[in-house]
Amino acid sequence: MKSRLSIVLAALWWGSLTGLGFVVVPMLFAHLPSPAMAGTMAAKLFTAQTWLSIACSFLLLLVLNKNRAQALSPLAQAAIKYVVAGLLLAVLVEFGVAPNIVTARASGGDLRFWHGLGTAMHIAQWLAAGWTLWCLSRSTNAGEA
Questions:
Q1: How confident is the model at residue 1, as a pLDDT?
Q2: Which residue of 3, 55, 75, 82 pairs with 132 in a disulfide if CB–CB is 3.0 to 4.6 A?
Q3: What is the mean pLDDT of residues 79-106?
C-alpha cells in the first residue's frame, strides 16, 4: 500500500509539472491577447505548482521514511535523493528566481536571463520528478520496495 501511495504521489508531481510546463503555459502564450497577460497567469500557475511540488515531495519523503523499516531497495533509496533535489529546485524557483523575474519585468532588468534560469530549473525539477517516478515504479515492479 505504501509503495503504491509513493508511486501515485510521484506520478501526480511529475504529471502536474508536465501538464503545466509543456501544455498549459505554452497555450497561455499562444491564446491570450498579450504576453504580459499570459506571463501574469503563468506566474500564478507556477506558484500553485510549487506548492503542489512541495506537498508531493514532503509526502513522498514521509512515505519513504516509513518504509525505511522494511529496508528500501537501492532504487527507492536513489529516489529519495531526487525527491530532495526536486524539492530544493521548486523552492529556489519560487523564492529565488520568480521574484527576480518580476523585478526584471518591472525595471527592464535581465528578464531573459532569469526566465531562462527558471525554465532550466523547471526542467531539472521535471527530470527529478520523472526519475523519482521511474525508480519507485521499478522497485515496486521488482517487489523490492
A1: 52
A2: 82
A3: 93
pLDDT surpasses 70 at 112: yes
Q: HSE of 12 in the Cβ direction (CA atoms, 13 Å)?
A: 17
Which range of residues forms the domain containing residue 105? 2-141
- The pLDDT of residue 144 is 44
What mean pLDDT comes out for the span 114-143?
A: 87
Interatomic CA distance for residues 75 and 22, integer angstroms: 27
Q: Percentage of the chain with pLDDT > 90?
A: 68
Four-CA torsion 32, 106, 16, 58, nearest 10 degrees: -160
The pTM score is 0.87
Q: Give the count of beta carbons closer than 10 Å to the beta carbon of residue 74.
A: 10
Residue type, 102: V
